[in-house]
Amino acid sequence: MGIFNFEETQSIGEVRGVDTARVFIQVHSAEKLSHARVGRLVTIQGLDSNEWLLGMINRVWRDPLEGDTEVGDEISPPITENNGVQVTLVGTYRAKHGEVSNYFTRAVLSLPDINRPVFPVEGKALEDFMGIIGSAGVATQKPLEIGTYTLDRKAKAFIDGDKLFQRHAALLGSTGSGKSWSVANILEQASKLDYSNIIVFDLHGEYTKLPYAQQLRIAGPGDLADPKEGVLFLPFWLLNYDEMQSMLIDHSEQSAPNQSLAALDAITKAKKTVLEQLKKQEVLDTFTVDSPIPFKMEHIVKELEYKNAEIIGSGEFYESGKKAGQEKTTQGPLNNKLTRLLIRLKNKLEDRRYGFLFQPPEKWYEYEALHRLADQLMGHTGITDYNKPGIKVIDFSEVPSDVLPVMVSLTARLVFQIQFWSDPGTNNDGRHPVLLLCDEAHLYLPSASKSANPLEKKALENFERIAKEGRKYGVGLMIVSQRPSDVSTTILSQCNNIISLRLSNDSDKSVVKGLMPDSLSGLLEILPGLEIGEAIIVGDAVLLPTRIVLNKPTYKPLSATIDFWQRWDNQKGATDLVKAVEQLRRQSRN
């Protein structure tokens, strides 16, 4: 026996119109119309009593009419009101589907007949149906429980964790809507899995106090003398040639092509020298300028200085005078054409803000440095001996904003390339999947119209490749942003799961609308009215697009909004301004 068993008196109306995805319903009376609210579920019998079509109400109207209504040559009795409901079909329920009982699919397997009665899904029927939806998402003994359904607060809402991360996800919402808590809730549940593997790009230090996560931090100026465990350096040699160019070469300069060629030659020569010294013949036979081979920047500076001051023989000789018999000389092809590049490079080398790039400890120049970095980021290789939780939070808060995009994308690119080149084994079981959680993504993944900065363009290219190809190699993306209109549409379009909290800006709403199927665009109208911590979830990871109250995490992120008025009225403690000023001078909170 199925879960839908209705009496005729429970019907709110009858089907009066049907198209491919929408059903138009005439409601019997104003009293019945009170059961039809936007966002609620209704059901209509399908081909037989075993099949029921589920729909979501996205429009309700009540139009008063006066006088008689003509139908052909006849005059119908007066109608005082025309009460209607528009419903978007969202799936099909079958009491029995082969050997499976209480089966639900998002596919609309049939369309309702005209005059079919329509019943609201409420009370016991709603509780039973939400139970089916919830249990369908339980794929493992440790399911991803996201919250409870707004329609039925007793019913737990689950998400298919495989489909959520395989096919990328976007978590969007205005400031203060509950994004950070939602992220912390997902991380907390993932931490309970034995082999979870998530890298969080934390730009403001919001997740640095989560006790179940491994805390990593990109080195700041205060870490250069005595870096502690968990402090990461991203030495310059990790960058590929395009990223190096975007950081060092000013393409508006007339000598930019010469600078690029000189840098290419110097970097290739430095990497080749290192491989020869280490006798890495196999790598030497196949390496390119993009291969991550350790080298020191002083070698590059020395080579560029030589080319900038190079004097070469002309092939002609003096025939008389004091220089008779000596070869005439001329300036080298790059003589005095690399001066600006050298000034720019030396300034960066001496700037302690870029110490994580240009002033790493000696061990970061070892051939095995990349092995250790890969282990810290991705784990499970057994090279390091410290305990490695599956959640790694990387704090980028002390990275200068001008190089932030390329530093975040460098980390993501390394993870992707290591996955790409790892042995896939049988049926990809040789690759341990990893999720890249991109907090505040609008700061380093801007839309094409706003990414004039060459560093941002390089960052976009890396992430766009991951968005398009990551699924094949076990690399997932979760994009978190308060301004979806500022995030690359190429990346967002690859996100097959949308978790949208409250959004009120029209441009942001239009971006989210473009990511949803046309049949569900009506859901967007309620985005500005969502409560804090309430979301609309649509995508492959949920059986039913619906409104959900998200769970609160046990361990809160450091993202609470400061209460201005209350703190002005009752200050808890004075700010240590002297300490703040000294940390400003040191460019470090540590």
From TrEMBL:
Signal peptide: none annotated. Keywords: ATP-binding, DNA-binding, Helicase, Hydrolase, Isomerase, Nucleotide-binding. SUPFAM superfamilies: P-loop containing nucleoside triphosphate hydrolases (SSF52540). The keyword Ubl conjugation does not apply. It holds the Pfam family HerA_C. GO terms for molecular function: ATP binding; DNA binding; helicase activity; hydrolase activity. The keyword Hydrolase applies. InterPro entries: HerA-like, HerA_C, HerA_central, P-loop_NTPase. Residues 144-413 form the Helicase HerA central domain. CDD domains: TrwB_TraG_TraD_VirD4 (cd01127). It comes from the Bacteria. Residues 432-537 form the Helicase HerA-like C-terminal domain. This is Helicase HerA central domain-containing protein. It comes from Sporomusa malonica.
